[in-house]
């Protein structure tokens, strides 16, 4: 087992590879504290995946929270503007509440943000880097792409309370057309809205064909579809056409997002591994007149699906009496590129290929897996 970056667990290797990737594109590392003032998250709780935070008071009496998110901190502190963009990446752990286990989890994330004027190229660069990030995990990956302006056009014409709109968006996100129809009927919303959403969310797959079909379903979204088409042209030039597909059921909060949105998947993982989009409206809430685009890659648990090796070490060397002979033997194995655990007793719960006992009578191979 020669040591190289490839022998590291995926969660250990990826940050190194992605850091190098992002820096080649001019992004610089952003470092943040483990916590922020609670008010930052309270005022933007809809941007977060969960409103439940780990909070505490500092010595000055301020209410702080362990960070559940990195983007809000970047937006708060960025110097990026329409005249001078800032490109940042981060490697951080965030703390989030998991509804399924009802426990807080520490989740490793790698991501990037571009704060400044975001045009067709900048949005396409973010999607391209998300694609390259997924490829570093598994060449069998796909990115689902949409534009918040498409559903935004359909939702914008609704005369319905905000809570009803939230419920409708939730049904769309879950692809639950039965609930969508029920909610629309209960809210007195025209059936034409349900028919349009049903037709739109059924449009998936090839980008060019999907955009063409979406133009017929939602002609009012011409500007958003034109932008999406221009972004797709750049992605095609980058050789990513077969890795990007349309999915107009992707929903992010319209209060924060204002452009392309996307989700990324890899072959062996049954859930979203990367997600992002354009979120200029969030900048406006901070009083900053500029755009933004970014994404995060979720590293938590990837090694369960992509184990590096069936073995923790190649060999275990157990010495009896004087360790000198065993040490010399272990060093010879290491010189051959093998990983070796050495001690006076066998290890606890360590997966290994071969065990050797070295004592006064010589070297004995005990286990040969």
TrEMBL record:
Domain of life: Bacteria
Gene Ontology molecular functions: catalytic activity, acting on a protein; glycosyltransferase activity; histidine-tRNA ligase activity
Protein name, UniProt field: ATP phosphoribosyltransferase regulatory subunit
Transmembrane segments: none
Pfam families: tRNA-synt_His
Keyword Glycosyltransferase: yes
GO BP annotations, alphabetical order: histidyl-tRNA aminoacylation
UniProt domain Class II Histidinyl-tRNA synthetase (HisRS)-like catalytic core: residue ranges: 9-301
Keywords: Glycosyltransferase, Transferase
GO cellular component: cytoplasm
